[in-house]
Amino acid sequence: MSNMSGWGLTARLISKHFGALGDKVSEAIANFDPETATEADRDRLAGALRDVAQKLAVARAAFDKEHADVDKLRALIANDEKASATLAERLAAGKISEATVNLFCDELEANKAKLPLELQQEADARAYMDELQKIVDAFSQQLADFDSAARKALQTLATANAQKELQAVRAERQSQLASLSGLQGHSTALEALTRRAQSVSNQAAGMKIVADINQKPLDQAAEIDAIRKSVSQPDTQGESALQRLKRLSGQASEAVAA
């Protein structure tokens, strides 16, 4: 007895701890792959529904048989009751023996005694069928509710994943904008390029100043030369042909000299 008690305790401990371990493993799998876990749960419900539905089919067949037996027995009793009057007339007329009539009466009484048992069997078969029908209906409703809840849960999960991806994209964009902003504000290359541009601009300005200084004497010399040319050359604009001839022949100079 002590060994049996020990084995019983061991079995209970194994059942308890490994059962809990199984629940934890199932929960871990469900968290890791909720879609597959949901399909597994639905398959289990659908399998249970199929099993009960098969039992319901067998119960319906059994009830149909019991119901048919009751109908057949009732019809036989009713027909024998109608035949009783005919048999009584034939017995009174001496056309049938009492032994035959007694055999007929024995069968009629036996069938009437059998009818309550057949009715009870029919009622039991109907009750069993009705209970199975209730279970099938409950499983069907549970499966429909499960499908509805699963669709909502999966949709919620999809929405949550979409929101998570959206927030990840927003965070990445914010990081990119922050890095670009920092690059614009603290770029060593941009600062060096700006300093280089300013230096070149200063060099160009200095070269312009030097060029302007060097150009000034040249401009002054050109201006003096232009004045000289304007003075040394007579104004021939508007002179007549005779005046032109005299100028070209040197008479005009002589006239001036005299």
- Biggest sheet statistics: none
Order of helices and strands: HHHHHH
Oligomer: single chain
Beta-strand percent range = under 5%
Instruction: Indicate the overall shape.
Output: rod-shaped
- Would you tell me the overall average pLDDT? 78
Poorly predicted regions: 1-7, 16-22, 252-258
Radius of gyration: 62 Å
Q: What is the rounded distance between the termini?
A: 173 Å
Indicate the structural class.
mainly alpha
- Extended strand count: 0
Helix run count: 6
Helix content: over 70%
Could you characterize the architecture of this molecule?
The protein is mainly alpha-helical and 258 residues long. Helices cover 93% and strands 0% of the residues. It contains 6 helices and no strands. α1 crosses α2 (34-92) and α2 packs antiparallel against α3 (98-186). It is rod-shaped and about 200 Å long. The model is unreliable at 1-7, 16-22 and 252-258 (pLDDT under 50).
At a glance:
This protein is mostly helical and 258 residues long.
Detail the topology: elements first, then pairings:
Layout: H1 2-32, H2 34-92, H3 98-186, H4 188-232, H5 241-249, H6 251-257
Helix pairs in contact: 1-2, 2-3
